[in-house]
Design brief:
The chain is mostly helical. The protein contains 9 helices and no strands.
Length: 207
C-alpha cells in the first residue's frame, strides 16, 4: 500500500462454464467471514461453498486454488475501494484516497487481510500473489494520483517514487498493523495536514 509504480495485475485463469455474476457478492462475503473467523490455513474451498450456500462447482468455476480464491477476492474488493477521485487539487485527492484506505482498513477487507499476514511470510507464492494483487491495486491508484498532480504542476517529476510519497500510507499502515490503535478519518487528516503536505511543500520550495 505504498505510492510506487505498479505492474499489471494478473488475474487467475478460470475454465469451465461462464460464471454467474449474481453469486459473486455472496461468495466474497463468505470468504471474508471465513478468513476473519478461521484464518487462511483452515480455510477450504468446501467451507467457502458451504458458507456461501453454493455448490462446489460454482467455486471451482471461478478459482482453481485456495490462493487464487483469496487473493482475487481481496484484490477485487481493494480495487473497488481504491478508486482515484479527481478533486482538482493534490491535497483533495490525497485526502479522498487516504479516507478510502481508512474504509478498507476498518472494514471486512481489512480484517481478512490481517488474517493473512501471519501466513504470507511462510508461503512465497501467496506473498507474490498478494504483492501482484491487493498491494498493486493501491500502488496503481496512488501512481495515477501523483501523475495527475505532476501534470497540474503541483509536484516535481520523481516525487511519486520518493519517501515523501510513502508517508501517505506508511503511518496509517504502521498504526493498523503494529499498534492496534484506531485508524480513522481524523487520524488520516492529521497525517495529511501535519506530515504529508508540509513535506510536499518543502520539496517544492527546494526544487
Amino acid at each position: 500500500m505504498t505510492a510506487l509504480a505498479s505492474p499489471s495485475i494478473p488475474r487467475p485463469s478460470r475454465g469451465g462454464r461462464p460464471r454467474d455474476p449474481s453469486r459473486d457478492g455472496v461468495i466474497r462475503a463468505a470468504i471474508l467471514r471465513l478468513l476473519a473467523d478461521v484464518g487462511y490455513g483452515a480455510l477450504t474451498m468446501d467451507a467457502v461453498a458451504s458458507e456461501a450456500g453454493v455448490g462446489k462447482a460454482t467455486i471451482y468455476r471461478r478459482w482453481r486454488t485456495k490462493q487464487d480464491l483469496v487473493v482475487d477476492t481481496i484484490s477485487d474488493l481493494n480495487r473497488a475501494q481504491a478508486e482515484v477521485v479527481d478533486t482538482g487539487t493534490l491535497e483533495g485527492d490525497l485526502r479522498a484516497m487516504m479516507h478510502q484506505m481508512v474504509a478498507m482498513i476498518d472494514g471486512p477487507t481489512g480484517a481478512a487481510t490481517l488474517s493473512l499476514l501471519s501466513t504470507i511470510p511462510h508461503q512465497p507464492a501467496l506473498s507474490q500473489a498478494f504483492q501482484d494483487g491487493p498491494l498493486a491495486v493501491w500502488r496503481s491508484s496512488f501512481q495515477e494520483l501523483w501523475a495527475r498532480a505532476e501534470a497540474r504542476g503541483e509536484i516535481a517529476p520523481g516525487l511519486a517514487n520518493s519517501v515523501i510519497a510513502e508517508t501517505t500510507s506508511a503511518l496509517m499502515v504502521q498504526r493498523w498493523l503494529l499498534t492496534g490503535r484506531p485508524v480513522d478519518e481524523a487520524y488520516a487528516d492529521e497525517v495529511l495536514a501535519t506530515v504529508v503536505m508540509p513535506l510536499i511543500r518543502s520539496a517544492a520550495a527546494t526544487a
